[in-house]
Amino acid sequence: MPAAGIWGSTGVDTVSLMHGRAQDCMECRQCECHCPQHIEITRHLREVSEKFDGFKGW
Question: Which of 1, 32, 47, 48 is the most exposed place for a label (fewest CB within 10 A)?
């Protein structure tokens, strides 16, 4: 599915401005102790940051 289908017409940059980027994670892991699904949020954000840092869109 194209990004427009996921994010609507706002674009990746707008979503990043509204919610921050994965690279903004300080790796404090405070979010993980609150996650009811026990997701390794810090690890996933690191992986997303590695893949998408510098991404300019489709």
Answer: 1
